[in-house]
Amino acid sequence: MKTYHCSCGQTIFYENSLCLACGSELGFCPTCRNMVSLVAGDDGQFRCGNAKCGATLIKCANYTEHDVCNRCVAMPSEETLCDCCRFNDTIPDLTVPINKEKWFRLEAAKRRLFYDLGELGLPYGTEADGIEPPLRFDFKADGIPQFILWRRVGKGERVYTGHSSGRITINIREVDSVEREKLRIDLGEAHRTLIGHFRHEIGHFYWDVLVKGRREEEFIAVFGDHNNPTYSEALERHYKEGAPANWPEHYISGYATMHPWEDFAETWAAYLDMVSVLDTAEHAGFGGATRMVYADIDPMIDRYAELGIVLNEFNRGMGLLDVVPEVFVPAVVEKLRYIHRLVRLGRGENRAIYPDGPPPALAEPSGIESQQASSAAPPVAVALAT
Fold first, then answer.
1. 134 closest CA partner among 168, 110, 173
2. Mean pLDDT over all residues of the chain?
3. What pLDDT, on a 0 to 100 scale, did the predictor assign at position 370?
């Protein structure tokens, strides 16, 4: 994550909507992809405060009407929702007073997700954008049962956080830090965060976009056969028997052992965690001269390991959870290599960013074969053993 500056020179951050130094309204400009001061114009329009941009903007409707967003829409456009909010199908019931605060926090986490996707150049969009399946979000309220079993959501049924055919559903109970911590402990999870839910569920979305019907043989070679057992059979077995005792030797988490789809989504989320930390470190001056998100996977993992040890010690000194709890053993590293190459392939296929195809440096050969030269690498411990 970048650190930004208001036109007055004050440091501002990705979630800000007001500069406390000069009082300027702030917003994210989609044209220059920066947090900027908004210079008021006529008819509710603004000019981007970045002198190198100067785009004409309007605030997202969820900014002006509900104050749960801080992004803008570039003019001219018929859109009134920003490039994050336009994917919402269902928002929380705002007749419940506390739900506005919950929605605000959900949108803040979702904007972080979209920042990551934008930095990686991954394709996403609606049917009109030519993306199949189209990406959609539902933020709903309902009770979560004591034992969370997957099932389809129908009228009168409980809401389950999950993904189905491009639709990501988040139960807004996850915003409640007390309830979320209870679930984290009950389920034996190292982390349970809003951004973690978004990163996991978007992994299922990218399986549909980048793997399904296209690269399933390569996927099976790395993660296993997703057709046998079926997802429902695997889920029932997982919640009856739990993860095998030796899961840390092969998986990023206990939940990843349930089914190859969940292994992929958990590994995808860990990859996005790593990219986010490396991106922030780079912009803070701790990441070296080369953009880590375009680097080879092995130096990314090495740098993440170094940062993870330091960040974990910072948190332990404050009595907080480890920032980086994972241990990247060889089997997990191989899966991360697959994810990394898949991301590069997805970036190359994203015609919204590269209308004429990717630059030669980003072009990838067909298939996602293992990098055999690195397969004998020693285990990479990203977190200190506890």
1. 168
2. 83
3. 37
246 token code pair: 């030796």
Residues 102 and 78 in one domain: no
Across residues 286-303, what is the average pLDDT? Answer: 74
145 assigned to some structural domain: yes
Alpha-carbon span 383 to 305, nearest angstrom: 7
How many alpha carbons lie under 13 Å from residue 271 in its C-beta half-sphere?
29
- Taking the C-alpha atoms of residue 57 and residue 29, their distance in angstroms, rounded to an integer, is 8
Q: Is residue 382 part of a domain?
A: no
DSSP per-residue string spanning 71-108: BEEESS-S--S-TTGGGEEE---TTSTHHHHHHHHHHH
Q: Give the whole-number percent of the chain exceeding pLDDT 70.
A: 83
Burial degree of 19 (CB within 10 A; 0-12, 13-18, 19+) = buried
Q: Does residue 203 sit within a domain? A: yes
Boundary (domain end) residue, out of 82, 113, 139: 82
Residues facing residue 162 across a β-bridge: 169
DSSP of 267-314, one letter per residue? HHHHHHHHHHHHHHHHHTT-S-SS-GGGS-HHHHHHHHHHHHHHHHHH
Q: Give the residue, 35 or 141, on which the prediction is more confident.
A: 35
Residues 154 and 238 in one domain: yes
> Does the structure show a pLDDT above 90 at 175?
no
The DSSP secondary structure of 157-192, one letter per residue, reads: SPP--EEETTEEEEEGGGG-HHHHHHHHHHTT-S--
Q: How does pLDDT run across 64-78, given as a tens digit for each residue?
A: 999 999 999 999 988
pLDDT at 361 over 50: no
Query: The whole model's pTM is what?
Result: 0.85
Q: 164 lies in a domain?
A: yes
Question: How many whole angstroms separate alpha carbon 380 and alpha carbon 386?
Answer: 15
